[in-house]
Amino acid sequence: MKAVHFGAGNIGRGFVGMLLHQGGYEVVFSDVAAALVDALDAAESYTVHEVGDGGPGRENRDKVITDFRALNSAEDPEAVASEVASAEVVTTAVGPTILKFIAPHILAGLRGRADGASPLQVMACENAIGATETLREHIVELAGEEWASLEAKAVFANTAVDRIVPGQPAEAPGGGVAIDVTVEPFYEWAIERGAFGGNLPNIPGAHFVDELGPYIERKLFTVNTGHAAAAYLGTRAGREKIADALADEQVAAGVAAALEETSALLSAKHGFTSEDMEAYRITILGRFRNPALPDTADRVGRQPLRKLSRKERLIGPAAEAAERGLSAEGLLTVIGAALEFSLPEDEQAVELQELLGELSAEAFTEQVTGLSAEHPLFAPVVDLVQTRQG
Ligand SMILES: NC(=O)c1ccc[n+]([C@@H]2O[C@H](COP(=O)([O-])OP(=O)(O)OC[C@H]3O[C@@H](n4cnc5c(N)ncnc54)[C@H](O)[C@@H]3O)[C@@H](O)[C@H]2O)c1
Ligand SMILES: O=P(O)(O)OC[C@@H](O)[C@@H](O)[C@H](O)[C@H](O)CO
After folding, report:
1. Residue 14 marked as a ligand binder
2. Is the predicted pLDDT of residue 54 greater than 80, yes or no?
3. Rounded distance, CA 343 to CA 46, Å?
4. Could you give phi then psi for residue 151, rounded to 5 degrees?
5. CA atoms in the 13 A half-sphere facing the CB of 387
6. Nearest CA to ligand 1 atom 33
7. 10 labelled binding-site residue
8. What CATH number is given to the structural domain containing 49?
9. 286 and 343 both lie in a single domain
10. How many domains does the chain have?
11. Which among 193, 211, 229 is the end of a domain?
12. Cys bridge to 14: 6, 107, 165, 318, which one at CB 3.0-4.6 A?
């Protein structure tokens, strides 16, 4: 069995690749970072180190991953298409905005797939609602009328992945490109079952669910909302590491306030009990506090324009809370802190600060958050933008 995985970065090597390997797949990583591809392709194995308390598999904290290869999709797209054509599974962990660049490779692979082969099982493992569906839409759009003849060759399942994998040092301790990965022990991979028609991929570490919506919203609006709150409030308080941000009482109170609001929304919307949501929050805050995990506010706050967009972890739940007459004050405080996020090496952080300087508060709010002037959250966000603009 073979899986082609696009994106050999933190979560690609530290989670998706690891679980595919444990399921018995040969993993072909595909990436555009030449040095990383070369280092992976030359290696016989890499190690996933679990650090800190909790999680399954405590008896063995170092997982050695073998039976993989790596290809550069920028240099050799034909080889990637050929691997996709003969794979059972395709996964991605490249970031939601990169999915459109993965679509041509999958389409080319489907064109080369033998008639009668089992449908390719495609799963995007990104922090976004409906990421696999987005990937499918890119493929369908590219294929145009040809899609009718290819459609039966693939099935697409939305997923929710959860494991904190911090940024890794670029250089290995002995020199050369680092390919080992340090991760937290906790993980969860929920996959929507329906698309597979009973022929589930063999991923023992994942669990299959009938409806993914509640899982992905609970994950994105708790883990990622709480993480973003820790990053933006932590940066405002001068904390560089996420664990240090949580150790600051004021930051921790701000994170808790935002998460109480998202929990109230998730309970109202999906029927999670308040006890279940409280237990979920406690687990997550414990994960953020993991002192052995070198995770930074800069990584967690990266791409603030994506994080401030309409369906994402801040505006998404705040807008829905406001529509339902629920409190969004804690989330608004985090949105205000996100507007201050400034990081020269992050293109979106630079653009965010430029837009704040160029646009009126109303135009900024419409463009960045996608809220319309009639929405109950529009005026409070405009106030925050005006405050930031001085
Ligand atoms: N790190 C985490 O804790 C974590 C957890 C869950 C989900 N995620 C999600 O996984 C995705 C990846 O996150 P990450 O932290 O691993 O980021 P990362 O930057 O470490 O990895 C992304 C990889 O994608 C590669 N890439 C970029 N463009 C590409 C292209 N056109 N084709 C192939 N590869 C390409 C990059 O070179 C990089 O190696 C994001 O959507 C993120 O939200 C991350
Ligand atoms: O990857 P992003 O930029 O969407 O979000 C940053 C972090 O919150 C995220 O990577 C978490 O570590 C991860 O989602 C935990 O499962």
Report:
1. yes
2. no
3. 31
4. -50, -40
5. 14
6. 31
7. yes
8. 3.40.50.720
9. yes
10. 2
11. 211
12. 165
